[in-house]
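Task: sequence design from structure.
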């Protein structure tokens, strides 16, 4: 089970074991990670699972699809490494990934 580290805007860290094949958003919701709401259930239609992928990891995950890019245009606090965690699938390749959470999703 890959470990994902979520870091809240205040620096609080949460390391969780995620199931391969699920989305990062679902792993966050299952583990009650603050700031990952996933209100649309992972349909890429709300932006409430917004996160920032830490530097080195940005190039290790699949690029955002057009629908994710479009949704991010309407999301608060977007940065260069912004992603919707509902669009990142958990795999062994992301073992140890670090995701930072925006203050705007409190």
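Answer:
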């Amino acid at each position: 089970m890959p470990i994902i580290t979520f870091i809240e805007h205040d620096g609080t860290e949460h390391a969780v074991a995620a199931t391969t094949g699920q989305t990062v958003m679902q792993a966050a919701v299952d583990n009650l990670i603050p700031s990952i709401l996933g209100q649309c259930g992972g349909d890429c239609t709300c932006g409430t699972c917004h996160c920032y992928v830490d530097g080195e990891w940005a190039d290790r995950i699949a690029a955002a699809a057009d629908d994710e890019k479009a949704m991010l245009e309407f999301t608060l606090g977007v940065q260069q490494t912004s992603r919707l965690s509902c669009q990142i699938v958990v795999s062994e390749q992301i073992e140890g990934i670090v995701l930072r959470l925006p203050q705007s999703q409190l």
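The chain has a mean pLDDT of 94.
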